[in-house]
Design brief:
By secondary structure, the protein is α+β, with helices and mostly antiparallel strands. The chain is built from 9 helices and 10 strands. The radius of gyration is 27 Å and the shape is elongated.
Length: about 280
């Protein structure tokens, strides 16, 4: 189920919050396995430990969300060195929607399955603020606060759906950019432009450059240079190649320019590097 399908599922749902709290789990505490019988969602504010859901361990870390569905076998333990602070919300929900002229109500299916378990968040602070808002509004008993609480809870789900959407998008983009890295490795001897690589990835040049640096810590241009220099190191270790030949083999017609680039990247000249390799 993708983010759009999740949004449609939640759009056709109505929620009822049964509890919202902010709790400290003391250092060293442990909860033996039990059946978690309701829907609930936790936000980890701070601390370390482990949640175990249906036999799968999830590390407790600040800025993560855990989503439970009924009949989940659950246990947890907290590290000895620090308390864990969590927000937790228990809720029920039903599918309530209009089909043509008729309102329909039915129990929820497995629509929350993609959000089950531990979620790493792209925007944890925004999620924390919404948990805090739901918690404070739920404690108020007046109808207006309760109505605002329900709105904030739906806004929280929307933010989680956007998180899923962003991760799906970044996953696709990351795969495309990683493919261009393979292409660079295979074609480093040929002239490679950022425009050519961005087109290969199917995204704009500016976006490609930004996301490439996010993934690898280098601009595409710098990455290409470093691939060339790594191959140059291998060739310098083979005595049958001279500097002019190596320069051309890694895609540089000007051996003096190649030498300057090699020294910038490695800190020493190609001839010094070759000498070191021979002496080893």
């Amino acid at each position: 189920m993708n983010a759009t399908q999740l949004a449609d599922h939640l759009h056709r749902s109505t929620f009822s919050i049964s509890f919202a709290g902010n709790t400290i789990l003391p250092a060293g505490a442990r909860k033996e396995p039990y059946v978690h019988s309701i829907h609930s969602i936790h936000y980890i504010v701070s601390g370390k430990g482990t949640y175990v859901m249906n036999g799968v361990e999830h590390p407790i870390e600040a800025g993560k969300v855990m989503i439970f569905v009924p009949d989940t076998l659950f246990e947890w333990w907290i590290a000895e060195t620090q308390d864990v602070e969590i927000y937790h919300i228990r809720f029920d929900y039903q599918m309530v929607y209009k089909d043509k002229q008729h309102w329909l109500s039915e129990p929820p299916d497995d629509g929350l399955a993609p959000l089950r378990g531990m979620l790493a968040l792209e925007r944890p602070q925004e999620v924390r603020l919404l948990f805090d808002k739901v918690y404070k509004l739920w404690k108020a008993c007046d109808p207006i606060s309760q109505y605002r609480c329900n709105l904030a809870f739906r806004e929280l789900w929307l933010l989680l759906i956007e998180n899923v959407r962003d991760q799906q998008y970044w996953s696709d983009t990351d795969s495309a950019i990683k493919f261009t890295c393979e292409y660079i490795t295979e074609h480093y001897r040929s002239p490679l432009s950022i425009e050519q690589l961005a087109k290969l990835a199917g995204i704009s040049t500016g976006h490609y450059s930004r996301e490439f640096k996010r993934l690898f810590g280098f601009s595409p241009k710098e990455y290409i240079i470093r691939v060339k220099m790594n191959h140059a190191k291998e060739l310098l270790g083979a005595s049958e190649f001279n500097l002019t030949e190596i320069s051309k083999l890694v895609g540089y017609e000007d051996e003096f320019y190649f030498s300057r680039v090699f020294k910038r990247i490695t800190g020493i000249t190609p001839s010094s590097y070759a000498k070191q390799m021979r002496e080893q």
